[in-house]
Amino acid sequence: MINVAVLGYGTVGSGVVEVIESNKELISKRAGEQIEVKYILDLRDFPGDPYESKLVHDVNVIMEDDSVAIVCEVMGGVGAAYQFTKMALNKGKSVCTSNKELVAKYGPELLGIAKEKGCNYLFEASVGGGIPIIRPLNSALTAEKVEKITGILNGTTNYILSKMEKEGADFEDVLKEAQEKGYAERNPEADVEGHDACRKISILSSLMLGKTVNSEKVYTEGITKITAADFVYAKAMGRSIKLLGVSRSKGEENLVMVAPFMISAENPLYMVNDVFNAILVKGNMLGNSMYYGKGAGKLPTASAVVGDVVDCARNQGRTIPCLWDAKEAVLADVDEVERRFFVRVKPEGLEAVMAAFPGGEQVDAGRSKDAGYVTPSLKEKDFAAKAELLGDALLGKIRLGD
Amino acid sequence: MINVAVLGYGTVGSGVVEVIESNKELISKRAGEQIEVKYILDLRDFPGDPYESKLVHDVNVIMEDDSVAIVCEVMGGVGAAYQFTKMALNKGKSVCTSNKELVAKYGPELLGIAKEKGCNYLFEASVGGGIPIIRPLNSALTAEKVEKITGILNGTTNYILSKMEKEGADFEDVLKEAQEKGYAERNPEADVEGHDACRKISILSSLMLGKTVNSEKVYTEGITKITAADFVYAKAMGRSIKLLGVSRSKGEENLVMVAPFMISAENPLYMVNDVFNAILVKGNMLGNSMYYGKGAGKLPTASAVVGDVVDCARNQGRTIPCLWDAKEAVLADVDEVERRFFVRVKPEGLEAVMAAFPGGEQVDAGRSKDAGYVTPSLKEKDFAAKAELLGDALLGKIRLGD
After folding, report:
1. Within a domain: A321
2. For residues B160 and B173, what is the distance between their CA atoms, to the nearest angstrom?
3. Are A89 and A199 in the same domain?
């Protein structure tokens, strides 16, 4: 029998218990041993909860119980979660987590302790919720030089953008509705400003490069400036607008960024709508492969955590290889990247735009309130400098993707 | 250093050598040891080939060389390939293969020998080419009860159907063109009659159920009866036509079949075009996840074989768990399955169809040569019985999918 402790009895934590209890027979068969939840750590009491008897308030009960082999850290944050993870790993207990913030910040250190102690630190649930993406990168695409990863990594923003596209609604209205329905948090900043996607693309980039991508240095732009009008132009161009995490490796330089992009219908990410996530991985032998599914939610996320529990059970006394060095990867300067931009301007500004970015294409979406234009390919910094000269006439800009 | 032998120097075999040589440094780093191709087995000579010196004609050279730890069986067929695989496994050499026919037929036996000998029999490349799907099922979705797998599993037929859809062309014309371009074999039966997809869904179903799905008992229908006219009706219904391998587990009964289906635009498989493959997996906790990429081709397939080589290198002396029992799974009788059907009839037959299947819906595609109708949900056998009565008036029928 393998005893598991769950740290944090919130949404994901209760999901972990539910997944283990619902599929116990199957999971135990796959793990090779009976899997049991022995402790649930939470500061709160849960009177009447069916697992009340497993609740403990003191983490030391778990740490000092040698029969606990696997710990699920689903508390979130980088304070106590970091301490408890280190404690567990140092005791030789494997840790499975959905905590992307912690993985992004301390991944290599925690992986290092796990290796030293012969246990595992697994984090499939930290990116893409229930979509297997960490394992494909670490254990499946091992014959590939991964050259590019492009992902829709945040379900809240994808839901908002899909809804804006479908209903012609504006950002603020859809956000409000999403908050009422519980799809967006009351403080939506981490999602809508792109910080959540930034942590996830940083983790994926680190695994792709084998070095650490510092998420604090990743250029990040959210979706708050996207309007219903932008979608009208996107549609006229046969495109959609998606918040993408992008990571591209070229020689020694690595471009990592998060921003809304206008992507074409040929891009497999084009059809990824609502709360779904998808990650497109380009390898030098395989070409594109894509991983699609529910990127968040109680059970999908918990399923990924429990999948890691099974892997820990199967790999007791053995550390599954994960090539992620603490050394920081060199990031390319986003300003130097060349691409095309869609710009939306006041009708009277169109001439100035065409003069500023000659050789582009006007986009006719049958609107009189504004005009659309796609610039030719130019450096981000050159675009920014010229766009600034347009002043008030510039109503919006979105990068063009593949 | 880990020595690898490649059995068969055809398309995939030369791809395996190319992938190992192209990405040698990365692959060796991930494997934890230098990976070297020591032998290539083929009956033919390849004068002037850069790897000519590694060629051997006698399999015993490989089997008797204890320094060869991993064998890539990429010969195909179930004759010599079966013998050589058993020989290698019995010697404790791990085997990685793209040979779906062999895996479908002898999977559990070969897995059993590998387990007994403490080595591995891995077959990621046997389904979905370079798309990781075996590993997600075996090692990632281990917290899930997988309830349904639906896949576009054959690139040739998907290419043909996509082209028929896009160009309004008929099956025979597109097949001929595909053969000229090398996308379809001169003898296309295995692809267009669904046999290839049948082997692949049988492998996936066996992994899903943990028991053996005998591919010879799987109901299999190909795409040869699909016409350009069917696509006109599909379009009018907002649908596409795809050759699907379907596997559904319900209680003790398992439905496994291969047939063309008309699927709606909401189905994530709808956008999978050309030579791409995709597999949609429905778990009881996660819901749908999808795996998309190139399902065939030299380098994608070879990449999957070499990914398995890395896994074998990482797991020397240890057998990666694979729950696939030799016991045969009970398959449901396809005749008893209830679903809707699209039927295409001569204009004069429409009334008879509406009388035979009351409560369905007529499909208006603006055609005068034939008429389209969608039946209400009914059992396959009841549909077949009534359809037979329509005689010559019935021009075609296609199952409706999700």
Report:
1. no
2. 9
3. no
